[in-house]
């Protein structure tokens, strides 16, 4: 009996040892296979992530701390307002804005571009759509910093490029326009089944809208080149005007954030630090009886629209009664408020500028200008009677006195809440006019009171990719916030 028990124990021990050995072997096999490796990547999921990241970037720190202030749309409280004083001591923020865009939008979309151009998973329709998103991501980066890693950018995972070269902004713009042109050609005759039938958070796989969107982005880039490369600008604008563009609010590129607290402006309006709308914006809307005032701005505790002055020094800010100023309007800052990448109103106003600048046709410019304003009013569901009243006002027609200023100012208004694009618009056109700070109660900062032109390359980027960053600085100019990017000639 004892022998039988001993034998049974030996068998049990052997079975346990075999099981452990088998388990260990499986574990070793898993290690050899790399547990972090993905054997089957869903490019649709990556595409959706990239798109969501791009929309979320319209409310990130590049906007809430910098572009919204620089564009004189609002003033944030607490330490979030410090960039409004034109300082440059924000190294950690510059690095996070740079790395988060590459780590979010660019990384995901570069993976999509790799998958959709590789044999076995190649799909030129998806590749064309992804290229539009990539262009928008790179456009924001280059408009923020100037020269950036573009041709080698975002390829650390797909191609192992750890220290990418920086590229001149002129070359970046030329290539972005080429990419959009290729996407338009492909998408015009594409089969929607080959696109993203269940993974398109912008246009729900409507390729007609994607063509209009891609072409409208091309028009935006073409007009941005106007003072830097007039020949390419004219060529690009002409091409864009020959293809379908965004014309109605059904064509708008928007998304409603459904995760977390929803639209980030909701948190900024209801939490800390709070945001108060700019005196410049409030005064513009009030002085012209613009019905978008009630959309963009909330009334203060006294039932008035009360803006906050941008750029106050610490003493003046302390005496400003900041808490009593007008908050951001509910239409912009509710949980379910839309985030916009581009709207039809912007495109009508770009066309108005082009008609005036390139065709010397004030009459046509006026028609396009009016279309832009009316489309913006309808975008925000302004009451029909108020729309009629405003469209009959002097502000809604070009006067001939300074049409470029009128178009530029209305563009600035229509771009809300895409505040980053508003700052870029001011840098390019000079409209609306943001005066240099000479008053004693305004902070002049690191720019001697001049509107900042770009973000800085961070100390981390300078240390980790030093040679390439220094080469970019040697071409572009000093790593300062008042060094203009290539297309900024104003």
Automatic annotation (TrEMBL):
Coiled-coil intervals: none
Keywords: Lipoprotein, Signal
TM spans (from-to): none
Extent of the signal sequence: 1-28
Protein name per UniProt: SusD/RagB family nutrient-binding outer membrane lipoprotein
Organism: Gelidibacter maritimus
């Amino acid at each position: 009996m004892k022998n039988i028990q001993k034998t049974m124990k030996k068998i049990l021990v052997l079975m346990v040892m075999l099981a452990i050995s088998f388990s260990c072997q499986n574990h070793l096999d898993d290690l050899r296979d790399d547990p972090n490796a993905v054997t089957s990547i869903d490019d649709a999921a990556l595409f959706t992530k990239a798109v969501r990241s791009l929309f979320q970037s319209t409310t990130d720190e590049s906007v809430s701390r910098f572009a919204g202030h620089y564009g004189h749309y609002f003033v944030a409280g607490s330490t979030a307002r410090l960039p409004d004083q034109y300082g440059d001591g924000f190294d950690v923020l510059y690095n996070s804005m740079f790395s988060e865009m590459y780590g979010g939008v660019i990384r995901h979309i570069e993976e999509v571009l790799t998958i959709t151009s590789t044999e076995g998973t190649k799909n030129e329709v998806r590749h064309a759509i992804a290229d539009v998103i990539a262009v928008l991501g790179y456009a924001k980066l280059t408009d923020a910093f100037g020269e950036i890693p573009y041709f080698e950018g975002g390829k650390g995972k797909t191609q192992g490029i750890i220290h990418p070269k920086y590229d001149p902004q002129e070359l970046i713009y030329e290539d972005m326009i080429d990419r959009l042109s290729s996407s338009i050609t492909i998408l015009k005759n594409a089969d929607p089944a080959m696109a993203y039938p269940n993974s398109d958070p912008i246009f729900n796989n409507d390729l007609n809208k994607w063509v209009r969107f891609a072409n409208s982005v091309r028009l935006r880039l073409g007009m941005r080149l106007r003072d830097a490369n007039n020949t390419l600008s004219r060529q690009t604008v002409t091409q864009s005007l020959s293809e379908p563009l965004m014309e109605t609010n059904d064509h708008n590129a928007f998304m409603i954030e459904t995760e977390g607290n929803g639209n980030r402006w909701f948190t900024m309006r209801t939490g800390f630090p709070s945001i108060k709308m700019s005196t410049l914006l409030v005064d513009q809307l009030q002085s012209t009886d613009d019905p978008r005032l009630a959309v963009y701005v909330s009334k203060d505790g006294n039932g008035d629209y009360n803006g906050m002055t941008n750029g106050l020094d610490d003493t003046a800010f302390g005496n400003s009664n900041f808490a009593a100023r007008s908050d951001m309007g509910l239409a912009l800052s509710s949980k379910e408020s839309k985030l916009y990448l581009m709207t039809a109103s912007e495109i009508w106003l770009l066309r108005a500028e082009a008609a005036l600048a390139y065709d010397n046709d004030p009459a046509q410019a006026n028609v396009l200008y009016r279309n832009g304003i009316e489309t913006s009013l309808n975008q925000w569901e302004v009451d029909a009677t108020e729309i009629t009243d405003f469209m009959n006002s002097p502000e809604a027609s070009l006067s001939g006195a300074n049409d470029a200023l009128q178009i530029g100012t209305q563009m600035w208004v229509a771009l809300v809440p895409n505040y980053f694009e508003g700052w870029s618009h001011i840098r390019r056109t000079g409209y609306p006019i943001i005066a240099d700070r000479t008053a004693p109660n305004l902070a002049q900062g690191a720019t001697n009171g001049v509107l900042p032109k770009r973000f800085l390359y961070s100390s981390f980027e300078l240390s980790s990719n030093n040679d390439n960053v220094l080469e970019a600085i040697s071409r572009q100019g000093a790593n300062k916030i008042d060094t203009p990017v290539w297309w900024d000639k104003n």
